[in-house]
Amino acid sequence: MGCMLKPNTRDSLDVLMRAYRESRDLLMTFRFDNQGIRNKVHGWFLPNGAWKPEHTRVDTFLERLSGSDAELAKRWKIQSALAHPTALAARNSTAVACAWAAPGKGIAQSYADKMQPKIDDYLVSVGTLIVAATVDAPGWIRLDCDDARMPNVEPFRLQAAALLSGHR
Fold first, then answer.
1. Is 2 within the bounds of a domain?
2. The domain containing residue 59 runs over which residues?
3. Does residue 135 fall inside a structural domain?
């Protein structure tokens, strides 16, 4: 994962973060303990079924739990535009490669400055995927994850929180 956090692979990081977000959003949709969601998920496994998270429903659910809007649908749309094989994604990749290869002073620092928000987003993406997989919130199907069998989860959460609070 550390390789993805380097400036010359910045466009690959966008694809990886989209995968984390998709996994998290689908997992949270899977976890709703209600027949309507079960029927929808069943449809995803049929031929021609399309996997699409219930962003609005998850946003509403998370807002009730936390008191703030996670804006999953909005973030998904932005990330999808950057990570899909589109003209925009190709231009971004080309711009990253050209800037990295261009001679000039200060480019390493410029990249370091631009990468910090990407690193923060990466930590948040991994952290929220962990929460989606390990927390048994009211209204979700219980997974009963055993914290004793996941010794790296809490240290990661604490270290990520410390690092992120230092950048704000």
1. no
2. 8-166
3. yes
Q: Are the CB atoms for 61 and 139 separated by under 8 Å?
A: yes
b/e code 114-130 from CB counts within 10 Å (16+ = b): ebeebbebbbebbbbbb
User: For residue 12, which amino acid is it?
Assistant: S
Is residue 140 one of the residues assigned to a domain? yes
Amino acid letter, 119:
I
Rounded to whole angstroms, the Cα distance separating 108 from 7 reads: 8
pLDDT per 10-residue tile (average), the chain, 168 residues: 69 77 87 92 88 84 76 68 62 67 58 70 80 87 87 85 71
Is residue 116 in some structural domain? yes
**Tally of domains in the chain:** 1
- CA 168/CA 163 separation, integer angstroms: 9
**27: helix, coil or strand?**
helix
Q: In which residue are the tokens 């620092």 written? A: 109
pTM over 0.90: no
Annotate 92-159 with DSSP letters as a single string: HHHHHHHHHHS--TTHHHHHHHHHHHHHHHHHHHHHHHHHHHH---TTBPP----GGG-TTHHHHHHH
